[in-house]
Amino acid sequence: MRLKRTFSPEERLSILQEGQREGQTATCRKYNIAPSLYQHWKLKYLEKGVSGLKPNYYRIDPEKRGLEEENERLKKIIAKQALQIEVQGELLKKTPIQIKKR
Asked: Which pLDDT belongs to residue 17?
């Protein structure tokens, strides 16, 4: 099984610079990376500079995640209560109110 390698932004920049000096094909073979990956890094570097070479992870704030979970829980409680009120209303419509005679 092949392990996934991760390159730091500094390593990516040095690989790109080496590719410009020695050629893309030779550099890709040396570091055993796909030419498409090299091109992807190169485009990101040209668009955003060194910050474009940093990995972009989508992290969700734990506090935000907790609030979203609480929000979902409260929505379920409200839906359950609304259903209960609707059922009670239907039952009241179906059962006639009996007046006690004295």
From this structure: 93
